[in-house]
From TrEMBL, chain A:
<dbReference type="InterPro" id="IPR017871">
    <property type="entry name" value="ABC_transporter-like_CS"/>
</dbReference>
<feature type="domain" description="ABC transporter">
    <location>
        <begin position="4"/>
        <end position="240"/>
    </location>
</feature>
<dbReference type="InterPro" id="IPR003593">
    <property type="entry name" value="AAA+_ATPase"/>
</dbReference>
<dbReference type="Pfam" id="PF00005">
    <property type="entry name" value="ABC_tran"/>
</dbReference>
<dbReference type="GO" id="GO:0005524">
    <property type="term" value="F:ATP binding"/>
</dbReference>
<dbReference type="InterPro" id="IPR003439">
    <property type="entry name" value="ABC_transporter-like_ATP-bd"/>
</dbReference>
<keyword id="KW-0547">Nucleotide-binding</keyword>
<dbReference type="GO" id="GO:0016887">
    <property type="term" value="F:ATP hydrolysis activity"/>
</dbReference>
<protein>
    <submittedName>
        <fullName>Iron complex transport system ATP-binding protein</fullName>
    </submittedName>
</protein>
TrEMBL record, chain B:
<keyword id="KW-1133">Transmembrane helix</keyword>
<protein>
    <submittedName>
        <fullName>Iron complex transport system permease protein</fullName>
    </submittedName>
</protein>
<dbReference type="GO" id="GO:0033214">
    <property type="term" value="P:siderophore-iron import into cell"/>
</dbReference>
<keyword id="KW-1003">Cell membrane</keyword>
<feature type="transmembrane region" description="Helical">
    <location>
        <begin position="165"/>
        <end position="187"/>
    </location>
</feature>
<dbReference type="InterPro" id="IPR037294">
    <property type="entry name" value="ABC_BtuC-like"/>
</dbReference>
<dbReference type="GO" id="GO:0022857">
    <property type="term" value="F:transmembrane transporter activity"/>
</dbReference>
<feature type="transmembrane region" description="Helical">
    <location>
        <begin position="105"/>
        <end position="128"/>
    </location>
</feature>
<dbReference type="InterPro" id="IPR000522">
    <property type="entry name" value="ABC_transptr_permease_BtuC"/>
</dbReference>
């Protein structure tokens, strides 16, 4: 079982530290970890720091290997990041964009002949369920379709750690469930999947582990029903909630009022 | 292989083939425009005279030979080279700055070059050992390159994103324009006229001394540019994504900026300020062929060469017997296209 460890992490933007001395519980392969918390809690910053997109102090290690000093290309062999938003005016087809993700820098694994890469790109589109959009230009897709295409690009290099920043923000109900199911199946491949989500009900139902963040620190973490409790939510969001078990035996979050 | 896979693979191949055909069509159109550019001119030589002068120079009158070899051919070749260089620079620049309105001139490189030229023309100051016509060229080049060194210094500073670069470029434009303004204020009437002609951008400066230089610069840079096609395409998907695909974006931006500055400085130094090719060329290329940089970079080269060649042709054809400085023609074509681009962007 592979592990990603984050110890004593300091990060943020120039002149604006966001996270100081954060240590996360170990993130293990095969599991989906959901980062949640109010706006400006530092969730996306943490994800971008793990992806190597921000300057960091402290340690981020995968299987004991420090990711900090790795070149962008080596790091891309371990970690992949799906950003919250993508440019909308790109005149590239969905398949071209996926192929460019593969070709942008040399891949670690052998087998990068053109035909193999094309098949790999097509296989990812089929897995995500957007192969019918393969030849459509990105600038003519809906927001949700663009988000699914972005997911395809972030997973096509077969990263060991997959970081998804609000991957369901532009999606309808059905596609939200689809993305959650896909996240679980990426984890089942043996990857570490970390996603930022605002929807606490999705977090309750789909996560192996939930980390609730607040002001750059961890407010709670653990199994979904352990991390998301009325006390924690009241403290972090200032909102009164209940978690009830529905007729299917699944936890459901009901929002009562602002506190 | 499933039917979907086959259908996608076929569709992708068809797209590929269509783009190759478009590139060939652009190349043919450019060749055709070059031909007309060679044939048309104030001296009214016939097509057969032009061909004779090219292929058997001994068989034609000396005057025809001189017109074809010393005037028309350098002009026409220079038009292709400058158009191709500026448009390639524009294509790369729009990508690395993530800004469809970026062009080499946004960097302030041309403004810096103009100031260098003003120094040479008005005060007669240049590097030691440089004299005559070369002073303008050397000065334009030195200042253009200096401006790009400043831009490169900024691009390697952490936290300087695409917006920072564009803002700095605009600051350079205003600074150098102000310096040039001071020069013009101090200039004699004769020097001022000479400088204005230079700054208009004209192919009349083309000759067999400077064409090989720009050609060499161009053919050395193009392979590096094409080699960066995949990372540049990935950069279109956003900086975070490109970095996540393993692209060292800082390095990519730095090297691209170096290519842009060399291409722009070379062109401006030899023919003066030619506006809008760097903006319009890549836009037409990307409209035709998309943003896969394996195609959009060569398409930009060809569309830039084509537009410049057509502008050169127009500069001779608009007023019979006279050659209007080509920079004026490109601006006249460029302005409406530029406005259309902005309006089109607003609509979206």
């Amino acid at each position: 079982m592979a592990t990603l460890r984050i110890d004593n992490l300091h990060t943020g933007y120039p002149g604006k530290p966001i996270i100081s001395g954060l240590t996360l519980p170990p993130l293990v392969s095969g599991e989906v970890t959901i980062l949640t918390g109010p706006n400006a809690a530092g969730k996306s910053t943490l994800l971008r720091a793990i992806a190597g997109l921000l300057r960091t102090k402290g340690s981020i290690t995968y299987e004991g290997q420090d990711l900090g000093p790795l070149s962008p290309q080596k790091r891309a062999g371990v970690v992949s990041f799906m950003p919250q938003s993508v440019p909308t005016d790109i005149n590239l087809s969905v398949i071209e964009a996926v192929i460019s993700a593969l070709k942008a820098s040399p891949l670690d694994a052998a087998g990068d002949g053109n035909e193999q890469l094309h098949n790999r790109a097509i296989a990812v589109l089929e897995r995500i369920g957007i192969s019918h959009l393969a030849l459509e230009p990105l600038n003519q897709l809906s927001g949700g379709q663009r988000q699914m295409a972005s997911l395809a690009r972030s997973v096509v290099r077969e990263p060991k750690v997959l970081l998804l920043d609000e991957p369901t923000s532009a999606l309808d109900l059905k596609h939200q469930l689809k993305v959650m199911r896909l996240a679980r199946s990426f984890a089942a491949d043996g990857r570490i999947v970390v996603m930022v989500l605002h929807d606490l009900n999705l977090a309750l139902k789909w996560a192996d582990q939930v980390i609730v963040m607040d002001k750059g620190t961890i407010a709670s973490h653990g199994r979904p029903t352990t991390a998301i409790t009325p006390d924690i939510i009241a403290q972090v969001y200032g909102v009164a909630i209940r978690v009830e078990i529905c007729s299917l035996g699944l936890p459901n979050l009901i929002v009562d009022r602002e506190l | 292989m499933s039917t979907t896979t086959t259908a996608i693979e076929q569709g992708y191949r068809k797209q590929f083939a269509r783009r190759i055909i478009l590139l060939v069509a652009l190349a043919l159109a450019t060749a055709l425009s070059f031909f007309f550019d060679m044939v048309v001119g104030p001296s009214m030589l016939s097509v057969s005279e032009v061909f004779q002068a090219i292929f058997s120079p001994g068989a034609v009158e000396l005057s025809s030979k001189v017109i074809v070899w010393e005037v028309r051919m350098p002009y026409s070749i220079m038009a292709l080279l400058v158009g191709a260089s500026l448009s390639l620079a524009g294509c790369e620049m729009q990508t690395i700055m993530n800004n469809a309105m970026a062009s080499p001139f946004t960097l302030g490189v041309s403004a810096a070059a103009s100031f260098g030229a003003a120094l040479a023309i008005i005060i007669g100051v240049s590097l030691p050992g440089v004299a005559g016509d070369w002073m303008v060229i050397v000065n334009a080049f030195v200042f253009a390159f200096g401006a790009t060194l400043l831009l490169q210094a900024l691009s390697s500073t952490r936290g300087a994103g695409p917006e920072g670069l564009v803002l700095f470029g605009i600051a350079l434009v205003f600074t150098f324009n102000a310096f040039t303004g001071i020069m013009q204020y101090m200039a004699s009437a004769e020097a001022l006229q000479q400088f204005i002609f230079w700054s208009l951008g004209s192919l009349t400066k083309a000759n067999w001394d400077n064409i090989p230089l720009l050609f060499l610069l161009f053919v050395v840079i193009v392979p590096f540019s094409l080699a960066a096609a995949w990372p540049l395409t990935a950069l279109r998907l956003g900086e975070d994504s490109a970095r996540s695909f393993g692209v060292s974006v800082r390095r990519l931006r730095f090297l691209s900026l170096l290519r842009i500055s060399l291409l722009t400085a070379g062109s401006v130094a030899f023919v003066g300020t030619i506006g809008f090719i760097g903006l319009v060329g890549p836009h037409i290329a990307k409209l035709l062929i998309g943003e896969d940089h394996r195609f959009s970079l060569p398409a930009s080269i060809l569309s830039g060469a084509l537009i410049m060649s057509l502008a050169s042709l127009a500069s001779k054809a608009i007023v019979a017997g006279a050659i209007i400085p080509v920079g004026i023609v490109t601006s006249l074509i460029g302005v409406p296209v530029f406005i259309a681009l902005i309006l089109n962007k607003r609509k979206r």
